[in-house]
Amino acid sequence: MVSLYYVQKFLFELNRDAEFQSRYTADRHSTLSGFDLSEEEQRALVEPDIGLLFHLGVNGQILMHFAAFHSIEWQDYLQQMRDGIEAHGPVREGVYAVTGYEGVEAHTTRLGQTSNATGER
Amino acid sequence: MSLVFAGVCSHAPGIVGRADQADPAAKDRLYDAFGNMRLQLEASKPDALIVIAAEHFANFFMNNMPSFAMGMADYYEGPIENPEWLGIERTRIPGDRSLSERLISKVMERSDVTYAEEWKFDHGIMVPLHFLTPNYDLPIVPANINCQGPPLAPLHRAWTFGQALREAAEAVPERIALIGTGGISHWPATPDSGKINEEWDRKFLDEWSRCDKEAMLSYSDSQSYLQAGQGAFEIRTFLAISGATEGKGATVHFYEPIPIFAVGCTTATVNL
């Protein structure tokens, strides 16, 4: 069972609600009730596992704020997503899975571009 | 009145939030371009500014996702993001409920639109305002096109939304300025952040500046996704500006890929 919708709903609520953020900080597991989530998804949200969340299909526009909330620096955030693809495989679902997102290198090759545009300058 | 100003600009959060990580000269060139756009906007003496944005799950989510929305309040707040992360302080931004209501009523004659009496601005609106109305003294009417959570309204409907906005602007006595904010090719907030397809961007901007309706409406999201990333879905905001100013040429004042800002940074105005 996967429920990308509820993973993203959880993060959407957390991103915009200071009270929800306080509860999450105090006891991460307690905030999961009310969201229809698999064990894997729950683990990814409380750990947090940014790479796994990206692999599951969470939109970066939601995920980047969750990473910032956990004080994960920008370049580390990008690297954790890359590591997630490396460890778990292509994005499973959601907008990035529409055409199959197989990772930075393959993506770059397909676009016929050189790979220096990762924001590291 | 008719529209007194129309243009487009980038809104990427890194433009302010990661400014210190950019090549200083490139950053300065972009900031100068925004400064010039501000002067052009001010010279048009607008009473209000409609900002057509492509918000990123700040107010609208897949539980109830409008394709098109407009704000209808006397004030708004932003940024919804962590101010430290975005580099823009949280503030109250003036709106104009009466003006919004009159505009929305007119827009509805041609285009379905959701109205919202609460709206928290995310970087899609805050970054442009940070440069264009930094004193937050011009009433804003926020408008949104869903470019994030598919299914997305087809491109021709973004065009029609722009036409409807122009008709609405013509129907009210206020002097209305209009900007669209969004990226062209980009892969924001993904492992490919920083990748920019300059060739794709320049082709699109050429079509946009000539208001080439046929060329712009021939794009498909699946093709755009492959060549220009999910961020390219935001060309809807550019198309809405073209729809609002159909038949008019435009001038691209600035275009430069700045990878740490994750987008080919752009400012452009329509030759009204």
Brief synopsis:
The complex is a heterodimer of chains A (121) and B (272). Chain A is an all-alpha fold. Chain A contains 7 helices and no strands.
Features:
heterodimer; A: 121 residues; mainly alpha; Protocatechuate 4,5-dioxygenase, Chain A; 7 helices; globular; B: 272 residues; alpha/beta; Protocatechuate 4,5-dioxygenase, Chain B; eight-stranded mixed beta sheet; 10 helices; 21% strand
What would your notes on this structure say?
The complex is a heterodimer of chains A (121) and B (272). By secondary structure, chain A is mainly alpha-helical. Chain A has helices at 4-16, 18-26, 39-46, 50-56, 60-69, 74-88, 104-111. In chain A, helix 1 (4-16) crosses helix 5 (60-69). The termini of chain A are far apart. Chain B has a single domain (3-270), classed as LigB-like (Protocatechuate 4,5-dioxygenase, Chain B), CATH 3.40.830.10. Helices cover 37% and strands 21% of the residues of chain B. Chain B is built from 10 helices and 10 strands. Chain B has helices spanning 14-17, 24-43, 83-86, 97-107, 123-132, 155-171, 198-209, 213-217, 221-228, 235-244; strands at residues 3-9, 48-53, 68-71, 75-78, 91-94, 114-116, 140-145, 176-181, 250-258, 263-270. In chain B, the strands form 2 sheets. Chain B has an 8-stranded mixed sheet, sandwiched between helices. Chain B has a two-stranded antiparallel sheet with strand order 4-5. In chain B, helix 6 (155-171) packs across helix 10 (235-244). The longest helix of chain B is centred in the first third of the chain and has 20 residues, at 24-43. The radius of gyration of chain B is 17 Å and the shape is globular. The relative contact order of chain B is 0.23. The A-B interface holds A 5, 8-9, 12, 15-16, 54, 59-65, 68-69, 74, 78, 81-82, 85, 95-96, 98-99, 103-104, 107-108, 110-111, 113, 117-121 and B 14, 18, 21, 23, 56-58, 61-63, 80-82, 85, 120, 148-150, 188-197, 222, 225-227, 230, 259-260, 262.
